[in-house]
Amino acid sequence: MTDEIAKRGRQGVFFAIAAYTIWGIAPVYFKAVAHVPAIEILAHRVFWAFALVLVLIVLTKKLARVRAVLKSPKHLAILSLATVFIAFNWFMFIWAVANNYMLDASLGYFINPLLNVAIGMIFFAERLRKLQLVAVAMAIVGVTIQIVTFGSVPWVALALAGSFATYGALRKKLPVDSLTGLWLEVTILLPVMAFYFFNYAESSASNMMLNTWQLNVLLIMAGVITTVPLLCFTAAAQRLRYSTLGFFQYIGPSLMFILATVFYGESLTADKMVTFAIIWSALVIYSVDAVKTHRQVRKAAKSKPSPEA
To answer: Which residues contact 131 (CB under 8 A, 6 or more apart)?
Structure first.
């Protein structure tokens, strides 16, 4: 039994690293199709994710879960609202990468965990520990300093962090697994994207019959980029504690930061450097608090007398 648990733990670590690494290097893909309008890439993301996830839904026999959500107007309404936020997040990320705002995207996903903590306090009545409060306050200070001192608003970062955190909060209210939720989200978006694509898309890449096969492969890969990391994340979540999984979430924005500054030549200006430094410090405090709490919980669990005692 112990060996089996250890094996599942190692598998969980592998899947977590895979998920966040793919999310972190996804900008390389979106740079490769940067000449295609962001809204068209979003449409392809929806089209191909719809097809790919539908196959997975059928293979994993989750159609019953889909029907259960469709029979609940309340759950469907919440999921539809969540879809608006994730669609906006996807579009903003595609646009940001194509227009050399990758550093801002990285900052947004560094801010995201701290924003999740704040949302938990405000909307879910979660009590924050002192170090969590300090970390959230530092994030607010970091953004405020950039706005007041340097006169620049990190709007891309705030839009990405805000939309993804809001999406996460809405999804938290739903008893829907990741795969089923993703398919329903892209299904909700499908008619909207299809209407745009077949009536208004006029770029040189909008007619796939005229594209090179290489470009068409890239466009179809939008569905893979959407689906594969989510599947890895789900597999990791099934094998690891959620608190443990949280420590891998910095892989993605860290890789984006490296890509932006080293490979794509984005400038790390003074305002961004100050904000990054404060956010990173806040995340260190947040992580130290998480490790400390995790150890206390494990220690308490070990010291708890067994039912047989």
So the answer is: 285, 286, 288, 289, 292
pLDDT tens-digit series, residues 140-193: 999 998 888 878 889 999 999 999 989 988 888 888 888 899 999 999 999 999
CA–CA distance, 188 with 284 (Å, rounded to integer): 38
CA distance 133 to 189: 37
Question: Cα–Cα distances in Å, from 214 out to 217, 218, 221?
Answer: 5, 6, 11
Dist. CA 154–CA 142, nearest whole Å: 11
- What is the Cα gyration radius of the chain? 21
Other beta carbons less than 10 A from residue 168's beta carbon: 16
Note whether 249 and 21 are within 8 A (CB): no
Task: For residues 95 and 130, give the distance between their C-alpha atoms in angstroms, rounded to a whole number.
Answer: 37
- The amino acid sitting at 176 is V
Question: pLDDT tens digit string along 92-129?
Answer: 999 999 999 999 999 999 998 888 888 888 777 778 78
Which residue is it, tokens 């490296």?
258
DSSP code of residue 269: -
- The whole-angstrom separation of Cα 121 and Cα 101 is 30
Block residue for tokens 């899947």: 15
E-strand stretches of 247-293: none
| % of the chain residues with pLDDT over 90 | 61
Q: Report which DSSP code applies to 264.
A: S
Q: In angstroms, what CA-CA distances link 286 with 84, 116, 122, 136?
A: 29, 12, 18, 9
